[in-house]
Write a structure and sequence with these properties.
The protein has one domain. It has 117 residues and is mostly helical. Helix content is 76%, strand content 0%. The longest helix has 20 residues. Helix 3 packs antiparallel against helix 4 and helix 3 packs parallel to helix 5. The chain is globular, with a radius of gyration of 14 Å.
Length: 117
């Protein structure tokens, strides 16, 4: 995740997203067997969502797609009962801080969650 954070800091959000996505795929099967990995999984998941938000914020044609993809990922992360706290307090804080910093993204997430209920 350190490498992903460095990529994000350099503005390489697509590369960071790909690296985070690989971590998510590796960790997902293990979190059902090892609760301790859940925080790591959600840290990686956060970075994937963050990368989509940042990529979607760039003034290019793909903006709505990136923001929408991030919103769908964020909304779906909280739908499984055991994942409602995003793996723990630190992870929940990361997601909630992102939602407070990105009002358009929060609006999309809220809209998706309301249509899912």
């Amino acid at each position: 995740m350190e490498e992903v954070s460095l990529m994000e800091g350099r503005g390489q959000v697509r590369q960071g997203s790909r690296q985070g996505e690989r971590a998510v795929r590796r960790l997902l099967p293990a979190i059902t067997r090892d609760n301790g990995l859940k925080e790591r999984y959600f840290e990686a998941y956060y970075h994937v969502v963050y990368s989509f938000v940042k990529h979607g914020s760039k003034p290019v044609r793909s903006r709505p797609q990136g923001q929408g993809t991030a919103a769908r990922r964020r909304a779906s992360a909280g739908t499984r009962q055991e994942w409602t706290n995003y793996g723990g307090d630190a992870s929940a804080k990361r997601f909630n801080d992102l939602l407070s910093r990105e009002p358009q993204f929060k609006e999309m997430v809220d809209r998706l969650r309301s249509t899912a209920n």
